[in-house]
Amino acid sequence: MIKRQTTINRIFRITGIGLHTGQPVTLEFIPRREFGIAFVFKGITIPARYDMVADTRLSTLIARDGASVSTIEHLMAAFYFSGITNCLVYIDGPEVPILDGSAWEFYQGMWKAGIYEFQENGVYLKVQRAVEVMHNDAWVRIKPHNTLDITMTIEFRQPVGKQKKRVTDVENAFSIINSRTFTLLEEIEAIKKAGLAKGGSLDNAVVIGMDDIVNPQGLRYRKELVNHKILDLIGDLYTSGFRIMGKVEANKTGHYLNNLLLKELFSDPANYSIY
Ligand SMILES: [Zn+2]
User: Fold this and answer.
1) Which residues pair with 82 in a beta bridge?
2) Could you tell me the CA-to-CA distances from 239 to 189, 263, 266 in Å, in that order?
3) What are phi and psi of 113, to 5 degrees?
4) Distance 17 CA to ligand 1 centre (A)
5) CB-proximal residues (5 Å) to ion ligand 1
6) How far apart are CA 113 and CA 239, in angstroms?
7) Of 66, 75, 199, 240, which residue is the least packed, with the fewest Cβ within 10 Å?
């Protein structure tokens, strides 16, 4: 568990293709003295913060002054798990690479780069009052707790069905980091027709067929799918700018509700304290 602000110890790069554009993109990670994670695209610095989120339909997209970066959630989760609070990410395209569909390669890169610790605190946000948001049958709520504790429920057609998982100590829940994104087989055609997911393949997503998982290697974990939804939630919660301490319960939540939860949380300073 980190106590103070941190950054990476040395510069490193990661290259991969964007899931939707199918184009190669390179990220360059630069140590930062200033608090927070921010992307730099076309010379514009975009804080990776909930109030910069401009689209949540396919992924979490941040935008500022005409520049945007999409699919930041897995990278943000890797920053969370690495304990890094300050970093600049230079990117040469509009979409963070999908890599294997999880946060694993980002996490490895950060781990190899090492961590530099500053003297300043102010990295934890403790929830003081319960907050809840909902949309149709999906909802997510957070209440006071002394760790980040997440319970997630998802429900899809068979063979997935309903899956539920609780992680009581998220900072050390390493099976979340390499759990991959997933899609239903019937959704792929519609997505490709819309000109999206040009970079999608069995190398970067779990595909759920009618009876079984299409990927020849199957799943990495029995609960990989619900694990991945927890990964997305952790990445989205880290756009708060802080390491949140609170008990989260979520049902079928996604990027839209995750962002709405943060907006609700920050709408009243009595809901939280920073230390
Ligand atoms: Zn995801």
Assistant:
1) none
2) 31, 11, 12
3) -70, -30
4) 15
5) 181, 232
6) 22
7) 66
Rounded-to-integer distance, Cα 154 and Cα 117, Å: 37
Half-sphere CA count of 186, side-chain side, radius 13 A: 5
Q: Find where tokens 């708060």 sit.
A: 240
Q: pLDDT tens, 191-231? A: 888 888 888 889 999 999 999 999 999 999 999 999 999 99
Tell me the CA–centroid distance for residue 98 and ligand 1, in Å: 9
Domains of the chain: 6-117 (3.30.230.20), 124-274 (3.30.1700.10)
* Active-site annotation, residues: 255
Q: What is the residue whose two structure tokens read 């961590």?
A: 115
Written in H, E and C, the secondary structure of 134-162 is EECCEEEEEECCCCEEEEEEEEECCCCEE
Identify the bridge partners of residue 46 per DSSP, sorted by sequence position: 39
Tell how strand 61-64 and strand 67-69 pair up: antiparallel
Shortest CA distance to 236 belongs to which of 14, 31, 56?
56
Q: At what angle do helices 224-237 and 73-82 cross, to 10 degrees?
A: 80
- Alpha helices in 27-182, H assignment, sequence order: 73-82, 104-113
pLDDT tens by residue, 149-180: 999 999 999 999 999 999 998 988 989 999 99
Q: pTM score, two decimals?
A: 0.97
* CA of residue 118 to ligand 1 center, whole Å: 30
Residue pair 96/74 in contact by the 8 Å Cβ criterion: yes
Which own/partner contact pairs does 235-238 have at CB distance under 8 Å and 24+ positions apart? 235/60, 235/72, 235/73, 235/74, 235/75, 235/76, 235/77, 235/80, 235/103, 236/60, 236/73, 236/76, 236/262, 237/80, 237/148, 237/262, 238/37, 238/48, 238/76, 238/77, 238/79, 238/80
Q: Tell me which residues of the chain have a pLDDT lower than 50.
A: none
